[in-house]
Specification:
- Strands 1-2 form a two-stranded antiparallel ribbon.
- The chain is flat and about 75 Å long.
- It has two domains: 32 residues, no CATH class; 78 residues, no CATH class.
- It is mostly helical and 143 residues long.
- The chain has five helices and two strands.
């Protein structure tokens, strides 16, 4: 546990970690590296519809974390290479950020869908009236 007294704040900042092998100086140095990693998760969860996990198994959580890091990193890299995107006419000093890029892509998603489906005929599915094979899938009644 490290206590940081900053005159800009009323209360001190307490930094805790489970890494007991680190010294106080190392903990304070490591804390500065925390924000860029958390930004990837924040961008991915907030802008890529990953804020509500649907599965809690170890494999599902690992996949979600991996996908969040990948999508957040890709959005940040693309935003760094693109020009700043204003959020509206009031945004006179636009900055490049992954959140703004994700918002812009979300607004343009309808155009992407129309382009992707151009020339594709809709499929007609027929309804299965007799599903004989599903009778074998019934679970036995609980005791």
């Amino acid at each position: 546990m490290v206590r940081v007294d900053d005159p800009a704040y009323k209360r001190p900042l307490l930094i805790g970690t489970t890494a007991q092998e680190l010294t106080t100086t190392e903990i304070r140095a490591a804390y500065g590296h925390r924000w860029p990693v958390e930004t990837n998760f924040y961008v991915a969860q907030g802008t890529c519809a990953m804020e509500m996990p649907r599965a809690w198994t170890e494999k599902a959580v690992a996949r979600r974390i991996s996908l969040a890091l990948l999508s957040g990193s890709l959005l940040k890299a693309m935003a760094a290479a693109c020009e700043p995107l204003p959020m509206g006419p009031w945004d006179l000093k636009a900055v490049s950020s992954a959140g703004r890029l994700a918002n812009h892509l979300g607004l343009q998603a309808a155009h992407f869908v129309a382009l992707a489906l151009k020339g594709v005929a809709p499929r007609k599915y027929r309804k299965i009236t007799e599903a004989k094979e599903t009778a074998d899938l019934q679970l036995p009644l609980a005791a």
